[in-house]
Structure of Putative SAM-dependent methyltransferase:
Amino acid sequence: MIVVTLKKGKEKKIKNGYLWIFKDEISEITGEKKDGELCNVFSKDFEYIGKGFFSNSSNIAVKILTLKDENIDKNFFLNKFKTALLIRKGYGDSYRFFHAEADGIPGIIIDKYEKFLVIQFRNKGVENFKNEIIDALIDLFGNEIKGIYERSDFETSSKENLERNVGLLYGENPPDRFTIEEEGIKYIVDIKNGQKTGFFFDQRKNRIYIRQYSKDATGFDGYSYTGGFALNMAVFGAKRVVAVDKDEYAIELLKENAKLNGVEDKIEAIYGDVEKYLENTDYKFNLMMLDPPSLIKKKTERHKGVQIFKRISRSGILKLEDNGILSVCSCAYQADIDLLVESLRRSVEFEGIRLNAIDIITQSNDHPWILQIPESLYLKCMWIRILR
């Protein structure tokens, strides 16, 4: 087994619950340096620190699994899964079941869609334990699930030296499309061809939050995907909602979702560019959600992030009526609340517009935020009122 010795003092953050060890924090490595191999980690003073997955191709050299000298086997994964299930009681039939580091195993993402699990293996280490992980899930869920489907086709898979694997791992092949229900709204989900694993469970709290402003509203859902916010606006009383996304397939699903929920006459679903639409439309709105995809990948791109969010926010604010409600979301850890606030403030410079902060809402609780792991807080939605 690989043995990793840390530089002096670098063990402190690991003992406090952080799970990443970077290359420049390591003093010495012995053993064959293979991606995904288990390694034992020691302090400079030869104190045992923990066990994790080694990576030779990433700047994160070790991802910690445990602070104990224990076996990594089916029972190890089963115990982690039991804890994850326990803290998600009351979430219904469909939710994020396991959220990587935040649930204690770097590299495993699992979404539950009623009787099917959809899983991503996001590093070589967990991929090496694929059989043990699947067996643990079968032991835990038993007849509650019909099948387990893999969607390890995420865009950064090559950086982790992974194949973009997609396909059935256990049981029945899930249907191409099926319907889930979240807080009274029905959604058609395509777990095989949709973005991520098919649905964005992390926005549950914000989808519910927008309902309080929806009665009699004229709403706009920018970067709508399959219409999570548009549907909640329409079902909860909006007069009219425009939804725009440049994913043509998602727009088709949005239209089907609108019909499924009986609000097809209220929602105009448009395939196109959000900023171009806002620039050219004559419509004014009083409720708006702007939830763009991840716009920056590194902290060094902060200036770029401010400029992009400033431009997007401005395009929305200029189409909002006085006293209108706007939410701007960031789904990147690197784009923090301070960046959002700065971007919003600068978006209305010299316009005589005041931005009244109403709330900041983070990801839903099935995507845990662990205080010792800052990166586990990634989704932030800033809710503001426009005052002229």
